[in-house]
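Fold this sequence, please.
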Amino acid sequence: MGVKFRTTKNKFPEMVKTANSLNGRKVQVGCIQGDHAWLASIHEYGCNIPVTDKMRAFLHSKGIHLKKSTTVIKIPERSFLRSGHDENIDEVLKKADKLVSLVIGGQMDEQQLFEAVGEMLATKIKTFARDLSSPPNSDFTIEEKGSSNPLVNTGNMIEGISFEVS
């Protein structure tokens, strides 16, 4: 004696269609727009700032006396986007896997899935950036901004971390 199942509606074609609609879509997370993008790229990759006579005079007035041989000031790399992604992506993907089953089952739509993943990763990267402490700021920078946290001054750059779904 066997057990027989009978369904009134075959949902499989609809599930396949939903799964296929996820293909090619993506979530971009980072400092995507405006001044935040410019500032984020400086911190993410570091940069060399050429020392001008005007800069040398300004720094001298602040008590920083550069050697004549100093021709650039180096802002060190503080990768918060790439490193924040790498540190958190496994957890985000695990959550995304669970959400995909909700989408395929019809309990969540595709846009909600991508927004949940984008929001989760953006939040994780913001936390990573706030907690980053190395390499430290120079003594001059700490004195000027009143904080030793390398990526936090006004907080605008970190709050500028967002996501786009395409």
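The chain has a mean pLDDT of 88. Residues 53 and 59 are 10 Å apart (CA to CA).
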